[in-house]
Amino acid sequence: MENTDMKQIQWFPGHMAKTRRLIGANLKLVDAVTEIVDARAPLSSRNPEMNSMTRGKPRIVLLNKCDLADERATQLWINYFRKNGAEAIAVDCKSGKGLKSFLPAVKTKVLKELIEKRERGGMVGASVRLMIVGIPNVGKSSLINRLAGSKRAKVEDRPGVTRTKQWVKLDSNTELLDMPGVLWPKFEDQEAAIRLAFTGAISDDILDIETLAMKLLVYLKENYPQSLTERYKIEMDAEASGLELLEAIGKKRGMMIAGGEINTERAAITVLDEFRSGKLGRLTLELPPKE
């Protein structure tokens, strides 16, 4: 990404520390952990402490917002998670895409051995309990509401809105324990933090919007140049900086202020909004690490 100065991203509201304690305290109540990640940035949107926090519980990873991500990249991520011991499914909580595969995958793959063991012991039809975890604004509450068929979880388009745990019944023998969104106390990898900021998982209120948009534009120029030219109808020089791209977009959209100056703040808000809503196309911000 372009070397544009940006302050160190640190964002860890107090209720998230409580969430880590809640996860540890409630693990004994569940059979497996369902982890939701953003399909556009699957690794960056995973809490790096989740492996230690869930202490070896069987896991299924849902790559949510797959309709906004590059399909080829999403398949690479599914292969990556499966290779590393977790079942993975691409889903979209808004359209319901992929969700029909979720419970069958849990019962025939993730918890197959446990269910068969229970049946041998006479516990036929015993309830399966799943903990659902994910960082803020990854679509967790929307996903639960679609799975449950009703608006059980509070949904808002801002980070960190789920503050307390809640049980949600999915069918006659499946219950979901929804945990508040949890980030980590320090972003050791600032590139991961910036990717999360691109997606809106980190509140825009604490960020320099223009610098963030410039970084996104440089990434897109290098990885998805056609998306920029098609959406904004701008000519792109291979050496164009983030500021030059932002100004070109602002000028093309007529975002001018007194004195003929380009309103780069308004242009930045537009770029970020259009990326997050999928208007720039299906884009992925990172690929699986090479083995």
Low-confidence stretches: 154-162
Give me the Rg, rounded: 21 Å
> Tally the helices: what do you get?
11
Sheet with the most strands? 6 strands, mixed
How would you describe the shape?
A: elongated
Q: Could you tell me the strand content as a percent range?
A: 5-15%
Number of strands: 8
User: What is the N-to-C succession of helices and strands?
Assistant: HEHEHEHHEHEEHHHHEEH
The pLDDT mean sits at 85
The largest beta-sheet arranges its strands as 3-2-1-4-6-5
Structural description of this entry:
The chain contains eleven helices and eight strands. The strands form two sheets. Strands 3-2-1-4-6-5 form a six-stranded mixed β-sheet, with helices on both faces. A two-stranded antiparallel sheet has the order 7-8. The longest helix has 15 residues, at 209-223. Strand 5 and strand 6 form a beta hairpin. It has helices at residues 14-26, 50-54, 71-83, 102-110, 112-120, 140-148, 190-199, 209-223, 225-232, 242-252, 264-276; strands spanning 32-38, 59-64, 87-90, 128-134, 166-171, 174-178, 256-257, 261-262. By secondary structure, it is an alpha/beta fold.
Give keywords.
single chain; alpha/beta; 6-stranded mixed sheet; two-stranded antiparallel sheet
How is this structure best summarized?
The protein has 291 residues and is α/β, with parallel strands linked by helices. It has helices at residues 14-26, 50-54, 71-83, 102-110, 112-120, 140-148, 190-199, 209-223, 225-232, 242-252, 264-276, and strands at residues 32-38, 59-64, 87-90, 128-134, 166-171, 174-178, 256-257, 261-262.
